Amino acid sequence: MPVRIGVIGLGVMGADHVRTLHGMVANAVVTRVTDINAERSAQLGAEIESATVSSDGMELINDRDVDAVIIASHDSTHAELATACVKAGKPVLCEKPLAPTSDEAAGVVAAENGAGLISLGFNRRFDPAFAELRSVAQSGDLGAPLLVHFSHRNVESYPGADSAFSITGSAIHEFDTVPWLLGSPIVEVSWHAPKRSGRVPEKLQDPQLMLLRTADGVLTTAETFINAAFGYDVRCEVVCETGAVQVTKPDHTTVDVSGRRGTRYPSDWRPRFADSYRRELQAWVGAIMSGSPTPLATARDGLAASAVAEAVVTSMNSGGKTVTVTIPEI
Ligand code: ISE
Q1: Distance 169 CA to ligand 1 centre (A)
Q2: Is 77 among the domain residues?
Q3: In whole angstroms, what is the distance from residue 30 CA to residue 50 CA?
Q4: Does 190 share its domain with 262?
Q5: Dihedral through CA 276, CA 213, CA 208, CA 249, nearest 10?
Q6: Ligand 1 atom nearest to 166, measured from its CA
Q7: Do 246 and 158 reside in the same domain of the chain?
Q8: Which atom of ligand 1 is closest in space to residue 224's alpha carbon?
Q9: Which residue, 158, 169, 211, 319, shows the most beta carbons closer than 10 Å to its own?
Q10: Where's the Gfo/Idh/MocA-like oxidoreductase N-terminal domain (predicted)?
Q11: DSSP 3-state assignment of 300?
Q12: Which amino acid residue places its CA nearest to atom 7 of ligand 1?
């Protein structure tokens, strides 16, 4: 019998997960969907014949036709909903971040109490290019990693995005990817403001630059630019003692026209990371079917990333001071 999945939050990512589960993931059936926007729920409910609409997240979580839950609603709702899934004893894939603050994230980890029900949507772990980058960096073939350069560019930010959201909602990916790549936790951070783009709202510092130091001494430069305009683009290079390795953009084609050869940038993350989302969902469903531990990021990984985000926000609010990352004891 397939895993019956309910999806909470049907914005860009939630709707994408519903369609991927429905069309491309084996042993999964979407049985329930819900969103605070009733029109969106109705549209997706009509599109996906197996799915009916629940009135809200709590109803969906406790529905007898739901074995497992995906949370893709607003970041501020993640902690409460993930905790409700744990109380209902249901596996949950919670989109990043687990919570915007480390205290809230710690509360979820405490509620989970080692049950292993929570997986975090740090999808880059399932991207073939990032997986290869990691295995080369960790192989020792290029000597030890010394330095990592990241840039993370979006075309435009969500309406209302402020400087903290750029850290807790976007750069949070780097806060998970760096320790995963290097096998060492981020222990110290600092935040820096380059010249501000004149195209962005006043309350938003964009781009931003962060320095992240892992316990093994490797330093990462992480640029986040959520109104970069030209296209969706994530770059990462690991510089090692005798070589360097970087992800190349996984384009399938180049176009020759008008005296030029070129590749295209997608307008958001879905095409760039489509493979990773499909692989992540398949891995999650497979583990539920077989009763194995989640192969995705765990609640503790989510807590670690939220603690780094909080330290970066503290550095930003203190004019760029170096801040030690503190993970609450549980
Ligand atoms: C979005 O939620 C993502 O997950 C994307 O990968 C990231 O680039 C974007 O900034 C986030 O808003």
Answers
A1: 7
A2: yes
A3: 6
A4: yes
A5: -30
A6: 10
A7: yes
A8: 10
A9: 169
A10: 3-117
A11: helix
A12: 170
Q: Are residues 78 and 111 in the same domain?
A: yes
What CATH number is given to the structural domain containing 317?
3.30.360.10
Ligand 1 pocket, residue 154 CB under 6 Å: yes
**Ligand 1 and 169: CB distance under 6 A:** yes
Cα gap 140→101, rounded to integer Å: 35
Does 185 map to a domain? yes
Q: Is 170 in the pocket of ligand 1 (CB under 6 A)?
A: yes
The tokens describing 156, both together, are: 């435009």
Per the domain annotation, does 329 fall within a domain? no
Query: Is the confidence metric ipTM above 0.90 for this complex?
Result: yes
- Name which residue sits closest to atom 1 of ligand 1, judged by CA: 170
- pLDDT score of 279: 98
Q: pLDDT tens digits for the chain (330 residues)?
A: 999 999 999 999 999 999 999 999 999 999 999 999 999 999 999 999 999 999 999 999 999 999 999 999 999 999 999 999 999 999 999 999 999 999 999 999 999 999 999 999 999 999 999 999 999 999 999 999 999 999 999 999 998 899 999 999 999 999 999 999 999 999 999 999 999 999 999 889 999 999 999 999 999 999 999 999 999 999 999 999 999 999 997 678 999 999 999 999 999 999 999 999 999 999 999 999 999 999 999 999 999 999 999 999 999 999 999 999 999 998
Q: Is there a contact between 205 and 219 (Cβ–Cβ < 8 Å)?
A: no
What token pair was written down for 14? 């939630």
Containing structural domain, residue 100: 3-124+273-298
Residue 330 belongs to a domain: no
Q: What are φ and ψ of residue 65, in 5° steps?
A: -90, 10
> Residue with the nearest Cα to atom 10 of ligand 1?
170
Q: Which residue has a Cα nearest atom 4 of ligand 1? A: 170
